[in-house]
Design goal:
By secondary structure, the chain is an alpha/beta fold. The chain contains 10 helices and 15 strands. 43% of the residues are buried.
């Protein structure tokens, strides 16, 4: 099989199965695992897969820059945001992550809702200025421009001095095996710090992130209260997560 044919075969397998196991592909095609790994390195270099131990997973589309992500699945993000906003109670305290889905949550909150919102995103804080009853607490640190959020040691230290009823986190990848992932190590650490300060943490993930993976794990499944997504409940990934006990809040 020519290199171009192997490439097409790997991409088709990734689309159909949601993962590539290098040793299985090598056995099926009668080639060495080294050849498969080289092909996967090339695909990963083009941003077409996320390499993991023993193979590869679908790459998340959410690794694009902030401006581009604003145009990705806006309808799905609004549906997720609507469900999330319904969990926020009057007088409660919410830790709200940055990113485009979190911004949709701000727009979904009732404008007259009296609550406290703790965030490390200046974009989220500015959007909340239109909510006169919301108390805004902004955590500072080095600005990670990809998601327009504060990260680093100063931001993590600031997060350790707050607490809340709820935490809404965005991630770039949701996969049964890889878990909850994002593309930057410091951002992943900041998300963990925020989640540790809330009684309940929910993951906000529109359907394009389901079944994909990025490089850095954020949290194990057992440390979240649930996943909010507009993905079909009978999809293979959602069924796997439900079977392992993850609470999935759908938008249907």
């Amino acid at each position: 099989m020519l290199a171009a044919e192997r490439r097409d075969h790997l991409l088709d397998l990734l689309a159909r199965e949601g993962k590539i196991v290098a040793k299985d592909v090598a056995a099926a095609l009668g080639i060495s695992e080294d050849s498969v790994r080289r092909d996967l390195r090339d695909l990963a270099g083009e941003g077409l897969c996320q390499r993991v131990y023993g193979g590869a997973l679908p790459v998340s589309p959410a690794v694009a820059d902030y401006r581009t992500r604003q145009t990705v699945a806006p309808g799905g993000k609004r549906k997720v945001a609507s469900v999330a906003a319904g969990l926020v109670r009057p007088g409660g305290a919410l830790i709200l992550d940055g990113g485009t889905t979190a911004l949709a949550v701000v727009h979904a909150l009732p404008r007259d809702l009296a609550c406290t919102v703790i965030t490390h995103s200046p974009t989220i804080a500015a959007a909340l200025l239109d909510h006169p009853e919301a108390e805004i607490f902004l955590l500072g640190g080095r600005l990670f421009k990809h998601s327009a959020v504060a990260c680093g040691a100063a931001a993590v230290e600031a997060a350790q001095n707050v607490s809340a009823d709820l935490c809404f986190l965005g991630v770039t990848g949701v996969h049964p095996d890889a878990g909850l992932t994002t593309g930057d190590a410091e951002e992943a650490a900041m998300k963990r710090a925020l989640a540790a300060r809330a009684a309940d943490t929910y993951i906000l993930a529109s359907s394009e992130k389901i079944g994909t993976a990025s490089r850095f794990r954020v949290l194990p499944w057992e440390e979240i209260s649930g996943l909010i997504t507009d993905a079909a409940p009978d999809g293979p990934v959602i069924e796997q997560l439900t079977a392992r006990g993850v609470e999935v809040l759908g938008t249907g």
